[in-house]
Design brief:
The protein is of the alpha+beta class and 117 residues long. Helix content is 38%, strand content 32%. The chain has three helices and five strands, in the order αβββαββα.
Length: 117
């Protein structure tokens, strides 16, 4: 566990030992080879048949690739938004009821309506 995350991971585990479970805690692990991985941790209190705390079950999921895909998708969406906003042609979108839901800068300048209108 990377130094920046040691205290917070320890807190998550200590909280689980106290009966306060944590879901979806994200932190970074570093492999022996130096690769970093983002892990999503769920820490659940482990109890015996009488309900006494006996430990913690920690389940981690490697979400490194998922985060990379999400970041890439966001970059593509941002690029497309910039392309539409700066296009030299009016571009608009409508919903299934015929209501205009999107409006680029060229449409606004030609028709005089702002995107919010």
């Amino acid at each position: 566990i990377q130094p920046d995350y040691r205290k917070s991971v320890s807190d998550v585990l200590q909280n689980a030992l106290a009966g306060n479970e944590t879901a979806n805690f994200e932190f970074v692990l570093k492999s022996k080879q130096g690769e970093t991985f983002t892990v999503l941790l769920n820490a659940t209190t482990r109890r015996d048949g009488k309900g006494n705390v006996t430990g913690v079950v920690g389940v981690g999921q490697d979400i490194t690739e998922l985060n990379q895909v999400l970041a890439s998708s966001k970059r593509v969406a941002d690029d497309l938004t910039r392309l539409i906003d700066t296009a030299n042609a009016p571009i608009f979108g409508i919903d299934t009821f015929g209501k205009v839901t999107e409006w680029n800068a060229k449409a606004s300048s030609l028709l005089g309506y702002s995107k919010d209108e």
